[in-house]
Amino acid sequence: NFKISKNINRVGIRLIENQVKPTSSSNISSEGIIRGSIQVPGDGNPIVLTSEHPTIGGYPKIATIIMADLFKLVQLQEGSELIFKEIEMNLAEKLFFDFKNIIDTIQNKIVYL
C-alpha cells in the first residue's frame, strides 16, 4: 500500500508510507523513461512520472502504470491510498484501446464554436 504525498506536480507524484529499498545502487546510468514509469530514488519513496516528466532518468524503474489507469491516478488527491496490481501485457493493451475508444468518442461529440 502506498499513499500520495504532498509532493505532487506535473512532473510526478511522490508516493510515501512504503519505501522500496534497492538491492543495489539507487543510481544507474541514465536511460529513456516514459509517462507512467515508477522510479525509485535513494530515499525509497517511489515517484510516478506524469505529463511533464523528463525524457531520461537515472533512478531504477520498478514498473509502469498503464495509460488507462494513469489518468485515474493523476486525479487522486494528497493522502489518497493506492495499491498496484501486476497485469499481463495483452490486458494492458486491451485496456489502452478501450480507453482510447472512449476518448475518441468523446472528442467526436465535441462541438467547436
Binned, the helix content reads 10-25%
Q: N-to-C terminal Cα separation, in Å?
A: 45 Å
* Mean pLDDT level: 90
Largest sheet: 6 strands, antiparallel
pLDDT below 50 for ≥5 consecutive residues: which ranges? none
Can you describe this structure in just a few lines?
With 113 residues, the protein is of the alpha+beta class.
What does it look like?
The chain has 113 residues and is an alpha+beta fold. Helices cover 25% and strands 25% of the residues. It is built from two helices and eight strands. The chain has helices at residues 67-73, 89-109, and strands at 2-8, 12-16, 31-32, 37-39, 47-49, 56-57, 61-64, 81-82. The strands form two sheets. A six-stranded antiparallel sheet has the order 7-4-5-2-1-8, with no helix packed on it. The chain has a two-stranded antiparallel sheet with strand order 3-6. Strand 1 and strand 2 (12-16) form a beta hairpin. The radius of gyration is 16 Å and the shape is globular. The relative contact order is 0.19. The mean pLDDT is 90.
